[in-house]
Amino acid sequence: MYQHRTYRNLIQKDNHSFFKVVVKETDLYVHAPKHLVNIARELILQYRGYIESYINRYPEFAKTLTPWHITTPAPIIIQNMTAAGKNAGVGPMAAVAGAIAEHVGFGLLSHTNEVVVENGGDIFLKTDTPVTIGIFAGKSRLSLKIGLRLAFGNMPVSVCTSSGTVGHSLSLGKADAVCVVSASCAFADAAATSIGNRIKSEADIRKAIDFGKKMRDIMGIVVITGDKIGVWGEIEIVPIKGKKG
Fold first, then answer.
1. Which option is the CATH number for 6-239: 3.40.430.10, 3.40.50.970, 3.10.520.10, 3.30.565.10?
2. In this predicted model, which residue has the larger pLDDT, 185 or 121?
3. Which tens digits make up the pLDDT trace of 77-101?
4. Helix/strand number for the chain, H first, E second
5. Which 8-state DSSP code applies to residue 183?
6. Contact 151, 127 (CB under 8 A)
7. Which CB contacts under 8 angstroms, 24+ apart, belong to 31-37?
8. Rounded to an integer, what is the distance from CA 68 to the centroid of its chain?
9. Which helix (H) or strand (E) element contains residue 186?
10. Contact 222, 231 (CB under 8 A)
11. Burial (Cβ within 10 Å: 0-12, 13-18, ≥19) of residue 174
């Protein structure tokens, strides 16, 4: 079921192009110096095709909540989702939104030197200037009041968010927002789900972050539950004034 993503109205626009591409359940919002909508659509169809074909062969891939084990040759996006799920201790579909954003993003970087690809709150980006990403946390008073400021130079980086109170994605926890920063968008997506699954109340924030710190490849974690926040890693938290995203 398609859900209108009203938080996109809060994004501060510059002179670069913004465009949306929707293919079935995949709904990407892309920011780039060029209007690459046709190329983005072809990339979505390509990588969705790989995932759909694999699920046709192995239906359990789409259902399991535990790490998947590949036994036959598989497309690279399936390998990435599987590796992300194993690293985070969750099923491979916990990484699907991040994996699609990442593969489409890298594909677009063949046509431009900067890109931001957002897929349901999971973001792959490579920019020449620092970027601040607002954190949407549902009914929490901290929602869209703070953001992550990212300045990683020419290195692609990803920020993925899981929530037990917002959206339709499966979460076994009650966190309003769990954000994970990583070089891998697929892994950041899976890790945010895994960390979020461990939060039932504000009292669980510290132990959930301690759990996430043990995973390799995480640059930073932000957890918001109610009016409490926990932060760890190589990240900068900044206040957001007015309606910014």
1. 3.10.520.10
2. 185
3. 999 999 999 999 999 999 999 999 9
4. 5, 11
5. S
6. no
7. 31/115, 31/116, 31/118, 32/108, 32/112, 32/114, 32/115, 32/116, 33/112, 33/113, 33/114, 34/111, 34/112, 36/108, 36/111, 36/112
8. 20
9. helix 185-196
10. yes
11. middle
d(CA 11, CA 5): 12
Residue 76 parent element (H or E): helix 76-88
In the block, residue with structure tokens 């953001």: 147
Beta bridge pairs of residue 232: 221
pLDDT in the model for residue 182: 96
The one-letter amino acid code at 199 reads I
Amino acid letter, residue 193: T
- The residue type of 158 is S
Residue 202 CB-half CA count within 13 A: 6
Q: Which residues contact 223 (CB under 8 A, 6 or more apart)?
A: 175, 177, 178, 179, 195, 199, 205, 208, 209, 229, 230, 231
d(CA 128, CA 61): 37
| The residue type at 121 | G
Tell me the β-bridge partners of 117.
30, 124
Six-digit token string for 113: 């030197």
Work out the average pLDDT over 165-179: 75
